Each structure stands twice: as structure tokens, then as C-alpha cells.
């Protein structure tokens, strides 16, 4: 049989050739092993049957054979082969298209469901004070709701009420709702009337504003193994009423905005107090400014230390004299200092009359080699900061980008060693991108960007393109080694682009590859600089500023965050990988808290969600064990705006009692006692210090 099969091989080739040449519509090879149940009129007598059918399968095959013989006898086989076969092919193609459409509809429904879930979770965290993780699912929500209602939920999902597992004598205290407060008299009466029981068990999952499942139970009850997490309160016969009242009141105080927490407040000094020659402009005015801050009981001040001023004219020639004079004034007032290593430009956007560029010698290098700056798809250069792709390229008079940063930081540490020894300098903030924040310069106003434009990717310089092509080749897809060509302009909206629109290219294989590479370049730059910052500033707190990019947050793609370097679409957490990397260097995150500068209608038009973004970023950082500080985005708040900042800095009822470790206040310049912001700033500082209650 194998000899017959080998002799048939040339015939199979000839048959295939003839089929292709004559254009036959029958795609079936007569020598191929076919299922006799599907094709009873195509059998290969030379090929042995693999297995004889038995039982129900044999009965079904016999019925199929009988039907086939009937069709042959009735002359229907030709019709089946010609018209039926052609119709089957068309029906199969149509069915495939329908299946693909259904797949896309399913994806759309899933994205819509996730968007709704995200908004629900944000609302529950903000307004319901539920301790949900940053990437919670519906199981977490159901468990939190069950616990709020007085149920117990085990780790394996087992849900029950405590009272259902207690068969011995149980005394139920009166429950309290928001409408009917649990008074001290009621508690005393309930406690004095209770019988003799060895212990009082209180459900640990009580809601912050109610005391719902307070029961007296036998300590040796068989079901008590479930409640090992509950803390028994030993009592002689019955719990002491005053002790119970004290516990309830202490819980209420602990959950009331965490008022007992002291959050230090730093005031940001205005930019123009050091001129472009590195000298202090108005010492007397600065002294008056500091005295106002002292009257407000501010804990310290923050000051930008500009690379473009200190090393402005010649490489490795640092001018610190103006900053030395300023720091001596600050020392007289006994303020703590937060110093910002500002490696970025100031004044290129709407920043007032002050203009501070990158060092002049860097700009001269850029004239001959403009690829040291970030570049958009049209080839326009951004001079806000140096391109991250030259971190390890020796293009700055023989030094790499990170060597330039390290030399600057090391010079500062050496110059002001006495202030570090005294403890006057409490923290160093490292500028890692545009505006000193860890982000790409994707929203340059000098190039016409206007809120809420999605911005543009900044990766079209030769160094970034080389890195992208290298990464694409390593994946085996060299044609992926280029930036997107359908990502729109600076002021485009997501639905207007092929890349960011619903079901757009951002979620394709290429889109995921590119966005992962783009965000990893941001993370890699942070790691490169922070590793050297830890060497320069040993045992000093390091701060990294995270931006608040909240527009387009209600879309599936989160386009504005993508162009800024945060791979955070609705189906992916883009902040946890960043914070996981920052955790390795023990940094403190400073989050720019979005302000109420726009109405709700304007936020809706921009598809913005400042609250949702804030809760995602803050909780993601806390989940990674990072300390968090805050900074206001606008310079003047009314009382309502102050309350929003306080709620974010000291969240009520947080299960881990997390709160901001400090807050940097951007003040009006100059701050005068008669200004409209002065009274509200005084109120804000007292609330952050815990000196005022609601």
C-alpha cells in the first residue's frame, strides 16, 4: 500500500497543477483523507479507514450514508456539488464576517462596561469613602457593600451574618443609622440591661458613621472560629458602658477628616527673585515676603534652582552666589527648605514676563545638532528640556545627558554642605521633564496647543527613532520602527484621529508595542537620573513630581495621557509601573492637584475627570507604599477650593489612615496681607495642621 501511495505522488502534483490551471471551482483534493460523513461522494479506496465507528456514532454514520445513497439515486448529488457547494462557500464567508462584527461589538460593549465601572468606583471612593484598591473589580465592590450592610465576607468569598452563626443567647444592641444617632444614654441603658456574658464582640467591618452589628456572644461558641479577626473586649459580666462610649467617640474622631494629622505646608517662592545673572533681585522684598509666611505659620519654603541660570554660560561653571544669599535669609526665619533641581525651561508657555531658558551653551549645541531636543511629527523642536534619548549619548561637549545632571547636583551638594548638615534643606525635588514633571513636552503653547487638545508624540528625532527601530527589529517587526502617522495634531480630539478613536490603532498590536516603548523611555529616564540623585544626595528625601493630565480621561484611549508618556488607557493601569520603578529609589511622589478653574460643562466638553484621575494616581502610589505630597495647580483658591484640597490631602475614613506627607502651596506673587487669597490661605494652613475642626 505504501508503494501504491508513493506511485500516486506525481499524480497528486499533476492534479493540483491542473486544478490551478483550469480554474476549477472544486477545492477538494481527491487523494486527501476526507471525512466520509461530510463528503460521501469523495472516498479514497486506497487509504485505510483509521477506526470503525461504534454505538451511536455508527448509527449516525449509517443514517448519513443512507441519505447520501438516496440523493445519488434521486440525481441530487450534482446539484449539491455545483449550486450547493458554491452557496456553502458564500455562506461561510458571510458567517465569518458576521462573527468578526460580533467580536468587535463585544469589545465595544466591554470597553463601555469598563468605563462605567471606572466612574462607579471613583464615585464610591470619593463620596462613599469605600476603601477600594486602585484597580478594583466588581467583587471588591460587592464585598465592600456587604460589609457596609453589616455582613461578614471571608477571603474565599463566603458571606454571612454573624447573628446567623450564633445559637446561644444573644443580646442585640440598638443599631444606629445616620438619621438616628446612637446617643450616650442609649448605650448606657443597653449596657446596664445586658446579662452576664464573658465577652462582647464588635464587628470590625462597621461603616465609619454607624455602629451596626454589636452583639454579645459566647467565646467558646463553635462558630467563633470565623471571627478570629474580631477583638473581644474582656469584661466582668458585662462591658463597661463608659468604655464603649469612649471607643465609639474615638472612632468618630479618627474618621473625621483625620483631623489629628499634621500635614506640613511649604510656600513656593516666586520665580523671578533670582535674575538670569544668578543674583538676588530684591532682598528687602524677599524678607518681607518671608515675614508674611512666618505669620501664617508656614513650615517651610520651596525654591526652584535653575540649571539655565547657575550653569547658564559655560559648561561646569556654576554661579551659586544669589542662592547663597537667599538661603541665608531663609535660615534667619528658621524655615525648612525644599529645593527643586530645575532642568527645564520657564516662560516658553503662558508663564508671565519671566523667561528662563536652558543654558546658552546647550542651545548653541542644539543649533548644530537639533536632535538633542524633543521633536514632533512635523519636525518642530521643543526647547523645554533635553531629549531623554541622549541620556547616554556623549553629545554635550563630551558628556552625556545624565552626566550633566549629575555634575550639577553634585556641585549643589558640595556648595551647600553646611545647610545639609544643619538639616535646613529637608528635601530635593528632581526635575525629570517638561515643567519639572515626569512627562514629555506634549502640550507646548508656543506651538499653538490649547486645552483640551490631545497633544502630540515627541519621538521623531534621530536618537529616539534609532531606539524605536532597534526595539522593533528585536521583536522581528522592523516596519514597526516608526512613530504613528494618524495620531492627529496638538489640538485634535480623540475621535478625530485614527490612532486614538474608539477601537483605534492604539489598541492594535503595533499600537501596544509603540506605546509600551514610549512609556518605557519615560521610566528609563527617571531611573537613570534618580540612581545618580541618590548618590549625590545621600540620606536626603528625593521628590518626583507627577502631572495631572485629566482631560480625555473619559475616553477609552486616554489620548492626552498617552502623548505625555503614561500608558493608561481604560483597560490598563499606566501609573502602577511608574510607581513600581520609583519605589526602587525610595522617592516621595508629589502630585499636582487639579484645581476648579473650569466649570462642569467645560469638563464634560473636554471629557475630563479630575477626581477620577486624582484617585487613581494617589491610590496607585499608596498601593506601592510610596509617600505622597501635593501641590496646587492654580495660585489662588476660595474656601470651597481649599476644602477640596484638604479632602484630598487628608481623606476621611481611609482604612490605612493614609494622608499627604506635605503640601507645597503655589501662592500669588507677591503674597501681601491685604490680598483676597490671604485669609483663605490662613484657613487652609490651619486645617492642614489640624488646628481647626469642621
From TrEMBL:
Name residues in a coiled coil: none
Listed under GO biological process in this entry are: polysaccharide catabolic process; regulation of DNA-templated transcription
Which GO terms of the molecular function aspect are on file? beta-amylase activity
Keyword set, alphabetical order: Carbohydrate metabolism, Glycosidase, Hydrolase, Polysaccharide degradation
Which residue ranges have biased composition labelled Gly residues?
A: 82-93
Polar residues composition-biased segments: 16-25, 70-81
Q: What is its EC number?
A: 3.2.1.2
Q: Where is this region: Disordered?
A: 1-110
For this protein, the record's InterPro entries field holds: BES1_N, GH, Glyco_hydro_14
Bias type Basic residues, positions: 41-54
Which ranges are annotated Basic and acidic residues under compositional bias? 95-107
The BES1/BZR1 plant transcription factor N-terminal domain sits at 93-238
Task: State the protein's name.
Answer: Beta-amylase
Q: Which organism is it from?
A: Raphanus sativus (Radish)
